[in-house]
Amino acid sequence: MTTMNRKPLVAGNWKMNGNKALVAEFINALNADDANGVDVVVCPPAIYLSALSAGRFAIGAQDVSALDQGAHTGDISVDMLSEVGCKYVIVGHSERREDHGETSDSVAEKAEKVVSAGLTPIVCVGEPLEVREAGDQAVQGFIREQLSALTSKLSASELNQSVIAYEPIWAIGTGKTASPEQAQDVHAFIRGELSETDAEVASGMRILYGGSVKPANAQELFSQPDVDGGLIGGASLKTDDFIAICQSAKI
Ligand code: 13P
After folding, report:
1. To the nearest whole percent, how much of the chain has pLDDT over 70?
2. By CB count within 10 A, which of 1, 19, 191, 227 is most buried?
């Protein structure tokens, strides 16, 4: 795992799943678990954030508006997220890029808004299957483009307050996981790209892997030198699986 200055982070992204019963189950199960040494975050649908904030773990949102307030029906501002106790906000998840036309530029704007409110953005990047099949150069080119929007918008100190999640689209919800070597290669590439902005910031930034992480594969993925934890979808809906994955991230 990770160097001394990077504390592992495991975030559960419930996506559009869950209900009040699952909120109660998570509060009970996670409060009873000792996550010492790992930052644990649960990101439910926004409507459950307040209820989940009763837990002794961090909560995060799945999206945020880049705007502050006003006539934007359905949107949620970062101040509202902050007020209900959010510490993290996922931005630029591939499902939001796909379903809502989010671009790398709009994602960078959201990330900056999150940082400016003192919260931590978890900025998602990752390539689709056809890019992966085109080879390593194509993957790197795709991710470089996604990151460059971010590094041109955020200063080094803003990046320092951010987390990156590498989520290859072909591995999300498919049961196909990137091999530990594939994940490590891309994570090292991402850290190298970030170091062009600031080498020290890049070496301290947490880069999470997401895409079909399960209790059975988490430890091997998390043991890669540039993998600092995970962003977990399906397995974050089962308390036992999620806790087992969190335990795998312990140094
Ligand atoms: P799965 O773990 O279900 O593949 O989802 C990953 C993900 O998209 C987390 O944000």
Report:
1. 98
2. 227
Domains and CATH numbers, the chain: 9-248 (3.20.20.70)
Residue (of 154, 157, 207) closest to 185 by Cα position: 207
Per the annotation, the verdict on 187 as an active-site residue is: no
Q: Name the β-bridge partners of 60.
A: 88
Give me the pLDDT at residue 2, please.
46
d(CA 114, CA 165): 16
Query: Distance, CA 169 to ligand 1 centroid (Å)?
Result: 9
Residue from 62, 172, 217, 236 whose mutation best tests the ligand 1 pocket (most atoms within 8 A of CB) = 172
pLDDT of residue 1: 46
User: Would you put residue 175 in left (φ > 0), alpha (ψ -120 to 50) or beta?
Assistant: left
CB 114 within 8 A of CB 123: no
Q: Give residue 127 CA to ligand 1 midpoint distance, Å.
A: 14
Torsion angle (degrees, nearest 10) of CA 137, 98, 206, 129: -30
